Each structure stands twice: as structure tokens, then as C-alpha cells.
Amino acid sequence: MSSKPNNQPSFQDGPEPSAGRALVPLCLVIAFGFLFYWGELFLDKHAGGFQQDVYEPYRSSADVAAAQPLDDNGKFLALGKQKFDQTCSLCHQPNGLGKEGTAPPLAGSDWVMNKGCNRIGMIVLDGLSGPVTVSGKEYNLAMVPWKATFKDEEIAAILSYIRNSWGNKGSMIKAADIKALRAESGAKDTPWTAPELLSRPDK
Amino acid sequence: MAVSTTLTAPSAQPVSSNSPQITATELDASCRWPLLALFGSAVLWLFLGVVLGFINTMKFHVPGFLAECPCFTYGRVHAAQSSALLYGFGLQASLGIGLWLLCRLGKAKLVGAVTILIGTLFWNAAVTLGVCCILGGEASGYDNLQMPGYMGPVLLWSYLMIAVCGILTYHRREERESYPSQWFVIAGLFWFAWIFSVASMVLFCPPTARGVVQASVAWWYSHNLTNIVLGFSGLASIFYFIPKILGRPLHSSYLAGLAFWTLALFGSWGGIPMGAPMPSWIPAMAALGTIFTIIPLIAVAINFCHTTCGQLKSLDKDVTLQFSYIALLFWFISSAQQIVSAFPAVGALTTFTWFTVAQKNLFLFGFFTMASFGAMYYILPRLLVIEPCPKLAKANFWLMLLGVLISYLGLGVGGANQGILLMDPANKFTDVMRATMMPVRVSSLGDLMIIGGILCFLLNFFGMFARRCCACCKAKKEACK
């Protein structure tokens, strides 16, 4: 008789496990489809448009841009946008495309993108009436004067804004330029006509 | 014969282990020494790790404890503890279990026993050196990758020595049809080699990454190491032992496949908390990946509900089964908690509180360690051809179970409360911290029980080993007479 430790224990070892072939329940697959759909919504909300400059707590590039501190130019343009959205956009539309029968477009307008404000400055100060050709298209309407409403700086800001939005490219307008135009226009109380303006040099 | 029939017959007939070629005993004998080396060192590291962890816990109660010695300051001990637990214990245990599963399920003898032994030797040497470096103040500063970067090549090389033998064993398998556990094991072997080499290259080889890339790679590595590499290993043994011991086939290999692929695909994105200082799409993708792990969670749940239905009575029969069931349960709880915390509204409360620590500890001790214990209670007696002490095994089980539960509930409840208190700016930070003292004390009690449980396992293991040696000596002496 051997001693106890030599008495080798017999381990029962059943067969190795096997795997059945039951299918994945269909409702589960459908539920996962919904889960993926929900996942898209989740990313829409939280992934910041997959932009590399969007960090928490911002939600989109626009949020980030809005939160940036503005330099002087930026502040000037922001003032211009604010005034434009309050007044001019009623006729010229917030996107600057104008409206048939109300006002011609500012976006892409050859008037707006003149070298300077010698002509459009006067339009804003004293208004415009009679036939006018904007970007090759004829209009015959009337625009009211804004002399009394806006200060020089505000008009300069509005013009700078419309000259640098919706794809327009133009120099910034200074308050001093508008001041000079205001002095020149003096007590003029009739709107300008297109031929009158065109006789003024483009500067 | 076994080869041809199983190839042509995809139906899942249980294949008899009394295959004419190789018996289970022969298979076990082929892995004896490499596995004993892996398991023995793993268990020692585990014990060292939890003891180091407890030193740190003590610092919460007695801040001056071991404070004069720079080696035992909180940061260093924490780094040393996580390295000991993950690299010393976690990876070695998962390698050992993985190799054994590959032998058993593939009906192939272990390839390259000597290579594995040498690999284990180098691995342990590297981890020892790494932990010493950390205690000496050389920690890398990346969570879960604390060992200094220059240990990387040694670690990777010795890991590969072992992993390649595993792959070769799988390649030589006689049972061609593979079982889900094998997928998990093989994927885990590749996964660690992949993430470790990438993380080492990006974080340690000049020019080292900086900023967002650095942080996201570190988070990615740390999450994948625990959730995928250790997670796969734990799942591999649960998928094997529960059907094996119940003597019932796994319900569905398709559900297992679904769980495997979705876990590999989505489970690996996670780990980056909402509000991390990086472009929001990165944490958003991480959160979404984690939320998508609801798919493997449900797939595993259905699979095991069907596999075990009506069999819960046999729970107290077998210690491996007990450990596997509880490990599976804790995997569910910890994964579910991870998913819930991934929702931004919840994450805002719980990030940087004890709540996340509770979840991570539950994963490591409740799930991975318990699953490994279960596996080792099955494997070790067969390697040593000797029974474990049932009383110690029982004590081990209950101490672990209660310890994990107490520690988890303490930290979980305390952490949730901490998160809620922190949201109110009227609460002073120090007051909030003071409010967490009681939960931390409760969890320390749980930690002590876990240490006790691990000690039981250690004693059981080395007791078996000693008894085996005595038996061998006696047998030799008798033979001499």
C-alpha cells in the first residue's frame, strides 16, 4: 500500500466544451441598428463637427469663433454687421442678395466693390433713386437717406462690413472719409441719381 | 481521425477528450513547468501588488505613514502597485491560462516549453527591475505604463517569446474547429504586442509625441491593457470553464462571435473621459465606443443565460464554477457602470471621483482576478497532480467575494456622493474630501479581506507545491530502498 501523497487523485475531465449554433436573435440586430442611429445623433451633438479646434465646452467651430476676443478691425466689422442687420437688411436681405422689387443685391455688386466710398458713401448719406445698373442688371427703385440716422463711424463700419462679406473683397472705410463726404454733400436733401454718382471719380 | 471528422462535421458535437492520440493528462504534463513558473510568479506579484496598494490606502488614514522614506511616497507606491498588478500578475496569469486553454482546446502539446521558461524569467526580471526603478523615482508618469521606457524592449521581447509559443501551439492544434475561448486568447496575445509596441514607440522613442497625441495614446494604451487584454483573458476562461464544468455546450458561437468582434471594435475606443483637454470629437468617440459595448454585454448575457439556465444549483459544487460565475457577474456590473458613466451627464458627475476607482477595482479584482483564480483552481491541481486544500479555497472565495463587494460599495457610493457634492460650488473642496473619508475606510476593510483571500490562494498554491515535492522525495526514497 502506498502512502497517501502517492495516491494520485483522479481528476474528472469531461469533454472539452463545444459551442452551439443558435442564431443571434433578430430583435437584437434591429435594436443595434437603432443604437447606431442614436450614435450618429450623439456625435452630432458632442463631436464638435470633428473639427480639431473645437474643445469642450464648445459645440462647433462657430461657437469657438464667437468666443474669440476681437481685434479692433473685428470689433469695427461687428458693429457694422449689427447696424446692417438692424436696418439695411430689411431691403437688401441679411445675405446681401437683395430682393426683386425691393432692393438690388449688395453681394457681388460693382458699386459696393468700388475702390473707395466716394459713390456708395453718398448713396447711404442721401439715398438713391431712378434707374441704376447693378452687376449688369437694371433697377428703378428708390432708397431712403440715412444721413440723420447714423454717425460717421457707424456708416464707415456698415460700408466696411458690406465690402467684406458674402464673398465681397474691399478696403476698410474710415470714419474720416464719411466725414469728408458729409461735409461735401452739405444740406443736399434730394437723393442721388446713378448718372450723378457715376460722374464722381471712383475713389 | 479526429481531424477529418470535425472538419467535415460543423455540428457542435462534444468531442471526447479520450482522443486516441493525446490524453488530457499528457497535455497537462506538457505545460507543467512553464505554467507553474508563470502562475507562481503571477501570484507572488499579486500579493506584492495588493500589499503595496494597502500601504497607500493606509496613507489616507494615517497621512504620516512611511512618509519620510521617498521610496514609499504615495505616487511611487501607486505606480509600483499598478505595475506589479498589471504586468507581474495580470499578464502572466493571462498568459498561463491562455497557453493552457490553447493546449486543451486544440488538443496539442505546448510548443517551446524552454523558450517560455526563459521568456518568463526575463519578463519577471524586467518587471522586478521596473518596479525597483519606479520606487527609486524613475516612473514614466503614464498611467498603467509606469515602468521606465528603456524596460520596454526587454518586456516586449520576453512577451513575444511566450506569445509566439502560444501561437505555434494553436497552429499545431489537432482539433481544427476553434472554440470562442481560443479567439479571445489569440486576440489577446496579438493585442498586447500591438498596443505595447505602439505606446512604447510613441511615448518613449524620440521624438516623443507631445500634447494631444501623447495624452490620447497614453489613455488608449491604458484602457486597452485592462479592458481588452485582461478582459479577453478573463472572458476566455469564463467561456471555457462554465460550459466545461456544467457539461453543457455553450449556447451560441454566433453570439460569442458578436460579443468578441464588437468588444474588440468598440471596447478599444474608450478610456478618455468627457471634458478631457483634447478636441471634443476624441472624447465623444471614446464615450460612444464605450456606450456601444452594451452590444457585447447583451450578447454575453443572452449566451450565458441560455447556457446555464436552471443549472445555478450546481454552484456550490465546484470552486472553479463559483469563481467563474462571480467573475462573470462582476464583469457585467463593472461594464455596465462603465457604460453608464460614458454618458456625458453622468460622466460630468463621476469623473475624477472614487466612483471610477470603484469600477476599475471591480474589473481588476472582482472580474479578472476571480476569473483567474477560478481557472487556476482547475489547472494547478492537474499540473501538480494533487488536490488543493478545500477549506483554504472556500476561505479564498468568500474573502474575495465579500472584500470586493465591500470595497466596491464603499467607493462606489462614496464616489457618487463625492461627485454630487463637488457639483455645488458652495461646498468647500476640503469638506467634500472629508466626506469621502468614511467610504474610504469601509473600502479599506474590503481591501484587507481581498488581501486575506489572496493570501489563502498563495498558501494553497505553495502548500500544494510543497506537498508535491514531499511526495516526490518520498517516492524516490522508497525507490532507493
Write a structural description:
- The complex is a heterodimer of chains A (203) and B (481).
- Chain A has 8 helices and 2 strands; from the N terminus they run αααααββααα.
- Chain A folds into 2 domains: 26-61, no CATH class; 71-198, Orthogonal Bundle (Cytochrome Bc1 Complex, Chain D, domain 2).
- Chain A has helices at 26-46, 61-67, 72-86, 89-92, 120-126, 152-163, 175-185, 194-199; strands spanning 128-134, 137-143.
- In chain A, a hairpin with a 2-residue loop joins strand 1 (128-134) and strand 2 (137-143).
- Chain A has 203 residues and is mainly α.
- A two-stranded antiparallel ribbon of chain A has the order 1-2.
- Chain B contains 17 helices and no strands.
- With 481 residues, chain B is mainly alpha-helical.
- Chain B has helices at 2-8, 24-30, 32-61, 74-106, 113-135, 152-171, 180-204, 211-246, 253-266, 281-292, 294-308, 319-342, 344-350, 354-384, 390-423, 429-435, 437-480.
- Chain B has a domain at 23-177.
- Helix content of chain B is 77%, strand content 0%.
- The interface between A and B is large, with 39 and 62 residues.
Q: Helix amount of chain B, in percent?
A: over 70%
Instruction: Summarize the helix and strand pattern of chain B as letters.
Output: HHHHHHHHHHHHHHHHH
> What is the averaged pLDDT score of chain B?
91
**Strand runs of chain B, count:** 0
Described by strand count, sense and barrel closure, the largest sheet of chain B is: none
The main sheet of chain A comes to: 2 strands, antiparallel
Broad structural category of chain B = mainly alpha
